[in-house]
Amino acid sequence: MYMAILSALTLGAALADGTEGVNFHRYETSAITCTIGDNSALGEHHNRYNGIYSLTTPTLKDSPFVPDYAGLNLEHYFDLRPDINKVSHTFFEPRNEPMIFRQIDAHTTELYQPVTPYWAVESTTRFTVTPEGYVDMDFTCTPHKDHWVGGFMGVFWASYINAPIDKSIYFLEAGSSLDAPKWLQYCTQRHGLNSTVFGVGDDLGLSGPESTTNLFISASPLQYAIPFYYGRFRDHVLIYCYEAGEGGRIRISHSPSGAGDTPKGDDTNPAWDAQLIVPNPEVGKAYGMKARLIVKPWEGREDVLKHVRAYYEK
Fold first, then answer.
1. Could you tell me the pTM of the whole model?
2. Residue 57 CB: number of other CB atoms within 10 A?
3. Dist. CA 205–CA 225, nearest whole Å
4. Alpha-carbon span 210 to 220, nearest angstrom
């Protein structure tokens, strides 16, 4: 376990009730350096990409996230209405609508988004940098309009990965467990093809229109046993653990090219994504999910399982 000591260097010091003009916070500890912010631009980081702008550790000098974009980016609300992606502003509404940045304490950043005009969802995302160097995410949202098509509300997060040699993510096959694992490799052939993995018992079908853009439409024949996955970056591993709140479900999504071209233009950057699915959402009721991102040197699958077990058994 690392002994984390927060540096005094902060690239935006906000009060708990929000400070005008402050959009991000940079954490520097002995375990991790990361910048977390709202939909604002910052240097080469583009606007419209909230979440983790960049992340490095003492053993990882390159951020695993495409510098222009982000990790754990709140990207979409969605359901099964036709032509859902025809208007970019509403398709990417969480990215496009203002957020209120709040620095809660030395360890926690909050991104609050008031009720959005199209989807009518209010949300709060809290990121906490732990002493071990993990990034924990706690998301809650409240729908304010009864208009969901297909019997569910969907929320989509994207992580844009910076030119990994292996674009795949790996998770446990349905029927296996942390104590008796059976690993599946998941790397979709093209964007929007077999791009979402359901968990065991998730029987809410997706009968929406065919799409080559919407990853949440195209279901993979694979199923996962536990809502986590890992992917390799340089000589490190990124481990994503998710848990849905009451009544919710987690789905895993992948695109081999969702993060655009590599700097040389000779390959594409993948997107390693996740969804929260809320069946039959009620107006005015809060729903949520939690996640943990672990970035560390690769020490094999047993080490991955150790960290995953510690998260779910906490």
1. 0.92
2. 19
3. 18
4. 14
